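Course assignment 3, question 2. Fill in each field.
Student: A.L.
Task: Predict the tertiary structure for the chain below.
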Amino acid sequence: MRLSISFMGISPIDSTLPAVRAAERFGLDGVWSAEHIGFHDAIVPSALYLRETERLEVAVVGISTAGRHPGLIAMELSSLAELGPGRIRVQVGTGDPSLIAKLGKELARPARSTAELVHALRGALAGEEMDIEHPAFAFRGFKVNPLAPPPAVDVMAVRPLMVRTAARVGDGLSISMAASQAYIADTVRDVESELEAQGRDRTSFRISAVALGVIAEDLETASASAAPLFTIFDPPMLEYLARGVIEPGALVDAAEAGGTPAALQILTPEVVAGIALAATPEQLGVALERYAATGIDELAVSIFAAPEQQAAIVEQLAAARPARAASGAR
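Answer field:
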């Protein structure tokens, strides 16, 4: 299992650099940079991380047609690949409907549109002349002139249809933050079954997951502080991801009855521990082993701590890394 760090695109970019440099120094595998409409894009931080490091893989997370045309996306990714040949990977998805609406767009046929985006990016990044028409975008004689090998394209998925789409068209699958280990293990099995049905090689397909990292001596207080982050999730989706941790209907009913304050009553420290990488430094190795046991190929940890504390936590992650969490080929 590969071990990386992840940023949600909300914190000031400069504040993330000490953790990125620590990840490079202490032997982690990568850094993920997420894009959320109205916050940071993922391209500028990724370019900076490439310049600040020499070997870390940089994952560009949350790319969709909601923000810009796939042709422009391909140009950006091609430029990043030129800066860091072999070090770029992209994770595409549909985006949050509530955020997409702020750009005057709607989410329609998400699995189909995501598959179309993957195919379009592959063609454009390979330098093909593009003449295609889709409901969400079109190319008319468009061509990129790539100067580096194209990056792998993973699909971000939660529900079964999108998971199957990832297995059919993606180079990998990215599992959302807030997923329980039961959900992750079930999804790995589902993906492997679909890959087999498609005649695809599992060894060339990367399954990754991102987890909020709550690592502190006072774990109960830290977990309680982290709970509000999970209230930004749509309650039905969070319940679905939190398989085996939140009782079906409990969070949805609480949110409908009492909004965020009532939802927080469900998100106890015990629940947070079930949907996050929550551990004391001494427990960290065991917690990482549990994620490795789900069968994923990579875990990206989004560290819940003040920026000045994150580099030290990166060092703790590296020191606690189980033997089978050594860097993998996928």
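Instructor remarks: DSSP finds 13 helices and eleven strands in the chain. The chain has a mean pLDDT of 93.
Grade: pending
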